[in-house]
Write a structure and sequence with these properties.
Elements (H helix, E strand, L loop, with lengths): L9 E5 L14 H13 L4 E2 L4 E8 L2 E8 L7 H10 L7 E7 L7 E5 L7 H10 L5 E6 L9 H5 L5 H24 L1 H8 L3
Parallel strand pairs: 1-4, 1-5, 5-7
Antiparallel strand pairs: 2-3, 3-4, 6-7
Helix pairs in contact: 1-5, 2-3, 5-6
């Protein structure tokens, strides 16, 4: 990730599915986090020809483009690449905020690259970008109970117990995203991987 001094833009993508039916789903936590970041800067998303809703702002002292793809999760790659190309943003400056089955609920982990762990949104982005080397902000949603299919689990709303902590957890994830953008990966990991 480029230093804040160069003021090259960073693209922060929240993953989710569009439409009211999916708003409170576990799969839409990426949208919740970028919505929180937008609220912090007092901005509103606008439909962009790249295939996403975008908001240009400053985040962590840097020029940032917040984005929510207007496609369904499994085909997020097209809108991400379209938006990145429009703003001339390199894959190394792309940050994707997404739900993560392999982390306990509300655990936040930051990383660069790696596999997609069966996450079809990430798979689509990796294929479209032509690389897995982009930054990820992973919000833990835990594993499904019993024998529930993970595909069904991610499309369910957060439980009543989870919803009690959700606003605080989303706020924490937004803090981590802002630190990643402003301070870089290692510094942000040192701050947020201790919890």
């Amino acid at each position: 990730m480029t230093s804040a001094a160069t003021d090259e833009p960073v693209l922060v993508v929240g993953l989710g599915n569009p439409g009211p039916r999916y708003v409170a789903n576990r799969h839409n936590v990426g949208f919740l986090v970028v919505d929180e970041l937008a609220a912090r800067v007092g901005g509103k998303f606008k439909v962009h020809k790249g295939g996403a809703e975008v908001l240009e702002c400053r985040l962590g002292g840097r020029r940032a483009i917040l984005a929510k793809p207007r496609s369904f999760m499994n085909v997020s790659g097209g809108p991400v690449v379209g938006t990145a190309r429009f703003y001339k943003i390199d894959p190394a400056e792309v940050v994707v905020v997404h739900d993560e089955l392999d982390l306990p609920y509300a655990t936040i982990r930051l990383k660069l690259g790696g596999g997609e762990n069966g996450h079809n949104g990430l798979r689509s982005i990796s294929k479209s970008l032509g690389t897995r080397d982009y930054l990820r902000v992973r919000f833990g949603i835990g594993r499904p109970p019993g024998r529930m299919d993970p595909a069904d689990f991610v499309l369910r709303d957060f439980s009543a117990t989870e919803r009690k902590e959700l606003a605080l957890s989303v706020d924490h994830c937004a803090d981590a995203t802002e630190a990643l953008v402003g301070k870089g990966l290692e510094a942000a990991q040192n701050l947020f991987h201790t919890r």
